[in-house]
Amino acid sequence: MPSFLRRAPPPPTNEECISLWNVDAMLRIKVLWATYVNVRDVDKIYVKTGIFHGTEPLCPTQDTSQVVFSNPKWEEWLEYDLFVPDIPRSARLCLSVCSVSRRKRREEHCAIAWGNINLFDYKDRLLSDRVSVHLWAMPKGMDELLNPIDTTGSNPNRDSPCLVLEFERFSSTVVFPTMGEIEEYANFVSKIEVQEESKRMPSEAASEFETLKEIIERDPLSEISEQEKELLWRLRRECMVIPDSLPKLLEAVKWNSRDEVAQMYMLFKEWPQVSPEVALELLDCKYADKIVRDHAVLWLNSGLTDDLMSQYLLQLVQVIKYESYYDNNLAKLLIRRALSNRKIGHFFFWHLKSEMHEPSVATRFGLMLEAYCRGVGSHLKSIVRQVEALEKLTKLTDILKARKDETQKERLKFLYEQVQQADYLEALQNFPSPLNNNHVLGNLIVEDCKILDSAKRPLWLVWLNPDPMAECLFKCNSIIFKNGDDLRQDMLTLQVIRIMDSIWQNEGLDMRMMPYACLATGKEVGMIEVVRNAKTVMNIQRKGGRMAAFQVDSTQLHKYIKEKNKGFRYDQAIETFTQSCAGYCVATFILGIGDRNPDNIMVNEEGQIFHIDFGHFLGHFKKKFGINRERVPFVLTEDFLYVIAKGAENPKKSKEFQSFMQLCGKAYLMLRRHANLLITLFIMMLSTGITRIAIYE
User: Domain PIK helical: where (predicted)?
Assistant: First the structure.
């Protein structure tokens, strides 16, 4: 039944409530029993629990006693060192069922399944009575026994392990205090603190302010000591002079102290607007508080142009996963901006759609997709056409992968026969490109389509450009469709390269970058733009004969560029090559991109060089027999130097090479000034589960 026909919920009852701050008790939770816990070869099992605010534990963890796995019953109250009035609004109970195995006189503890529950519901009510939680399987490679940054709520799979808990019942429903109560309490606490602050010496305050500035300037991954946190909190009003210091100050707040939380809320009423980059940082999993996240959304709405929103959309969709409830201001902002700008809406749709196979986000993302599709009007037809085309291509590549025993010629014949059938032609022609909603993919040029040489059978597809001005623009659109490869890492790398290019452009430096389009559209399904008139360095070298492929002849690349660019265009092509080579040297160095070879570096006819295939990044390099195969921080081979030096005999002594090195240094320093933004973008992608960024490194 569609949502607009469902019965509306009954009106709320006038239940009696008491404020959380009027409860005089320590937090305690009863673990009753577990069901569907299927384990073998373990001695005992137990339940580990912790109360977290974001990534920060609010008190020591508590464990149940260990019981035999065949009878997982505890009926045991766990008491936490946390006063009920000190529980913050966004606190969550994190728990896991753990196994204990004895191996050679030592115990091995392993988490079997995990779950997280918000301690307050969306109406600000503290949980009470009995609750059943279906748990999730532990992520691969995760060593910790609790998983506080992942989703809250039950696993929809009812065959998963289930824990039954009991929360304490109070005389009335316990609710989080109103802003009026918080303000009154904050004023009371502030008066006491003002009296103590007046005793400090002026000279002491001056030296502390210098230390404060040094702490604020650190990058988002830097640790802050307890002593530094105390200093930040003591000088919190001074921090307002530097609005972008807010993330550091929030790390200093003791979230298990209502005194500090109440005062922090009052500071927010006066806090100046932060930069969009810092507002992005405030949506990370560390900053769980609703007031903090709502202010970040407010600042993003006023600080992000549509271009910047498009630039950061990939991360903004990911951090929706850190919101405690489906109904939140970040989701509303994204839906609103997606409906008011077609480009934002296009990629908003695909970023959500690409993760609908994940049970942990399917309900949340499904609701957002429904809201977007209901509001988008006639554009919905265009979206449906794209989805239908991709479903056809996925089905086709599944069949091709299953035909393992056939020759390439037989598979190609099958491809041609399939795509010329009426249902395929109808689905695969005259629809907007998922890579760029401004481009329409016209008639399929069947004879130019091919199956690339890979076990996953990626398709090289070519469409005519139906635009009347196609002769002046481009005649064809070529796209690689992949089914079986996770394109999210490539998509993230290309997005960050695009942002690097934007930083350089804004500072007046054109590095002639080529961050081609790449889009993940489903589980290990996606599309990659084919750059026109470009060849791999390996293919160019092969034209120089067999030995050239082994880089014996380092002049071949220079010959290719010279041949394609006659007269005055030659100097332009060399300049383009030099700028783009410098840009990619710096970008691949900063991103720690490995596995660089002539097969994944390309050059187009204008001399523009660019990298493809980013399977190894952030310093995760290929190894062989335990030995790191990456010998250099970035690729700058003899044939590249020969082009930069315009064919000079000793390239490294040429003035062109000296200029190239200066350009690299200048480009690097520009990005260094924006290091916090680049770090934030990767941190915001932690929730994707991409192996290379699955942990803080």
Answer: 198-375
